[in-house]
TrEMBL record:
Domain Aspartate/glutamate/uridylate kinase as annotated: residue spans: 9-301
Catalysed reactions, semicolon-separated: hydrogencarbonate + NH4(+) + ATP = carbamoyl phosphate + ADP + H2O + H(+)
Family (UniProt): Belongs to the carbamate kinase family.
One term under GO cellular component: cytosol
Name of this protein: Carbamate kinase
CDD domains recorded: AAK_CK
Keyword terms, alphabetized: Kinase, Transferase
An annotated Gene Ontology molecular function: carbamate kinase activity
Listed InterPro entries: AceGlu_kinase-like_sf, Asp/Glu/Uridylate_kinase, Carb_kinase
GO biological process, alphabetically ordered: L-arginine deiminase pathway
Length: 322
């Protein structure tokens, strides 16, 4: 499956949590539709590593436990965010494995795809713990949001890119992928690896017990987690797939302008001008800048999951390069 001559390009492909639908059925449909495109990228001589978001899913899992716990506190525990993040990696990784494995088996009679439950170390003193920005769970109307705030006075809820209101949680910067050696090992053995789902489960070192980590209540941005994964795996390209075809300036306004090709300097100017939704498009552009600057020749593409093949071929999406 790899190129006959020369080293294949390594591509990290990130699938946005909001682009994966809201139910198991929708998610299965979305990942099944994406699987042939992902395999085509391999046929073109690339190695792929997959990561995915979990914003809607991690919120859904935590809410489900919270309401079951309220109804039956003796038997059903409330569930903390890191455990919910781990469950979301299993839930989404499972569907991705099924979809990619089936497409791979049809073509190549092999099933070399595996998800790695991945922890990512964060700084316990990261300012993000004081300033929650990561939207999770379902979109709400203003009335629904107000009702949730009465039920959960400790929640923070914000408006998310004109799509409704969502709970936001802390989103610290990813520092170190704990399982990176397992990921590299699977890649060396020609597996398609699904890793750092939901940005990775955020953990901090537990210095009271050498070599151990403990989960923290946060959700890492998967664009930043995917960027770290791409650097750790020496990837050449980072592809961030979401629900819109392009990054835009004046997004949602009558003079919206879709961007096709921008330098890191232009991207940085647009970030400074506040052109991108916080916790939605801004982290993607910031991840793109970081990746494009990390080594000469590296490129980030941001485009839609539905047009993944076109984006990879340069016919859709926004390219960020040095
Ligand atoms: N300037 C912008 N250009 C394009 N999309 C934007 C912009 N600002 C905010 N958005 C919103 O960001 C969304 C992508 O972020 P998000 O839904 O968090 O991604 P994900 O698919 O990774 O879950 C788009 O669907 C769009 O609604
Ligand atoms: N963890 C994360 O970034 O999820 P989304 O892609 O759903 O925002």
């Amino acid at each position: 499956m790899s190129k006959a001559f020369g080293k294949p390009n390594r591509v990290v492909i990130a699938l946005g949590g909001n682009a994966l639908g809201n139910t198991p059925e929708e998610q299965i449909e979305k990942v099944r539709a994406a699987a042939p495109t992902l395999l085509k990228v391999i046929e073109q001589g690339n190695e792929i590593i997959i990561t995915h978001g979990n914003g809607p899913q991690v919120g859904m899992i935590q809410n489900a436990f919270a309401s079951a716990h309220k109804d039956n506190p003796e038997k059903i525990p409330a569930m903390d965010l890191p455990e919910c993040g781990a469950m979301s990696q299993g839930y989404i990784g499972y569907h991705l494995q099924q979809a990619i494995g089936a497409a791979m088996h049809k073509e190549y009679k092999r099933w070399h795809v595996a998800s790695v439950v991945t922890q990512i170390e964060v700084d316990p003193d990261d300012d993000a713990f004081k300033n929650p920005t990561k939207p999770i769970g379902a979109f709400m109307t203003k009335e629904e949001a107000d009702a949730e705030l009465v039920k959960h006075p400790d929640w923070n809820i914000v408006e998310d890119s004109g799509r409704g209101y969502r709970r936001v949680v802390a989103s610290p910067q990813p520092k170190k992928i704990v399982e990176y050696e397992s990921i590299l090992n699977l890649l060396d053995n020609e597996f398609i690896v699904i890793a750092c789902g939901g940005g990775g489960i955020p953990v901090v070192r537990d210095y009271s017990d050498k070599g151990t980590y403990k989960g923290v209540a946060a959700v890492i941005d998967k664009d930043m987690g995917g960027e770290l994964l791409a650097e750790d795996c020496s990837a050449d390209m980072l592809v961030l797939l979401t629900a819109v075809d392009h990054v835009a300036i004046n997004f949602g306004k009558p003079d919206q302008q879709d961007l096709e090709d921008i330098t890191v300097e232009q991207a940085r100017e647009y970030v400074e001008a506040g052109q991108f939704g916080k916790g939605s498009m801004e982290p993607k552009v910031k991840a793109g800048i970081k990746f494009a600057e990390s080594r000469p020749g590296r490129v980030c593409i941001i485009g839609s999951l539905d047009k993944a093949a076109e984006a990879m071929a340069g016919l859709s999406g926004t390219r960020i390069h040095a």
